[in-house]
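Dock 4-fluoro-L-phenylalanine; give full complex structure.
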Amino acid sequence: MGARRVSVHGEWSSRLAFVLAATGSAVGLGNIWKFPYMAGENGGGAFVLVYLLCVACVGVPVMMAEVLLGRRGRRNPLETMATLAREEGRSAHWRWLGGMGIVAAFLILSFYSVIAGWTLAYVFRTAGGVFDGATATTVNRVFAALVADPERLLAWHTIFMGMTMIVVARGVRGGLERAVRFLMPALFVLLIVLVGYALNSGRFDEGLRFLFAPDFGRLTAAVVLAAVGQAFFSLSLGMGAIMIYGSYLPHGASIARTSMTVAAADTAVALLAGLAIFPILFAEGLHPDQGPSLIFKALPLAFGHMPGGAFFGTLFFVLLVFAAWTSAISLLEPPVTWLVENRGMSRVRATVWAGVVTWLLGLCTVFSFNLWSGWRPLAAVPGFAAKGVFDIIDFFGSDVLLPLGGLLISVFAGWVMARASSAEELGLGESPGYRVWRFLVRYVTPAGIGAVFLFRLKDALAS
Ligand code: PFF
């Protein structure tokens, strides 16, 4: 029955197109901006190790589950969950899992676009030679000036949302599929060039040690939760983006192989970004725990001292913009498909609606770096005393909704859906591979994420 369903939005032209698009979704700011600063804040090696485990044991099985649900349902996440639940004779309330994904997509895209706006701004700063021969003080000053100015942040946020809306409005296949074919390999090559630079002029050994020598003393429940959240964020899981991309996947393409390829590419990019950034950071005497501004300070500093730095720096930020762009498109896609399918809107109209709502929500992030920078809206809540508006949106989107979405997706795929249905859709039969997957989504993923939530709750209440 699932085999006959088709998506009203069309299909990818091939399995490769899906791999590129899903990699385009997965590889983004999460890999190049967030992963290094999360690793920096959470003690390096121990975080990286937990992260790799999370990708292998939780990320890949959940990604397979999401793609399989998407391809079987062939609708927006809300409708896909409703259809599949009905088909399995289960409660229609499962649709709210899809709805939660759509809300998470809104939340995450709202701040994602603001940060992507910073990368746009940095394209022009690097090209203009602002960082030539820069010192740590200069890069700090340039960054502080950018985020302190709400008008400038607003302008870049608006431009980036506009870019995202244009592609989504034109349809997935026409705009996105063509773009990712060039952009993803190009980003890979450039990262390797940067790692080469770090190898020669930075303190590569120190960077390697920081990333790969775990200090288990730093392994707390908070670090584990951060790693799970980051794995979900980086792989674009738990919110219907991969589900919607799965709904455009042609039948016959191997879900297991494609998911593993996407996860491997995503992880490789995150590690390469770490290898490019930390040695440079240490060579310049900077600390790795600077939070969200890390990439906007360490890299410009390096480019400022590199032969041809203005050129490579510009290219790097351009490609970072494209990486963010292909991710942002996948975040706008679930709400848009919902508006088209359930509200009967045209794709263009749906894109404008979803885009404008996200843009408005993005204002919270814009202001949280300047006008509202001292505001701690949840100061009275244990664990939230130090969190600003951006931190709170990021926390609920990345650390709560995404893992929760992933947890429920695995419960659905592992427990609610009949064994025959998932085996059929994965096309693995009763092979050992299928059994491993089923074991992981039935036991490992829910238990792992559940335990992390409990620890986190305890942590938050104790602080
Ligand atoms: N995976 C993207 C990144 O690492 O930047 C972010 C993202 C995109 C998260 C799409 C979730 C999503 F649905």
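Observed: The domain at 15-462 is CATH 1.10.4160 (Hydantoin permease).
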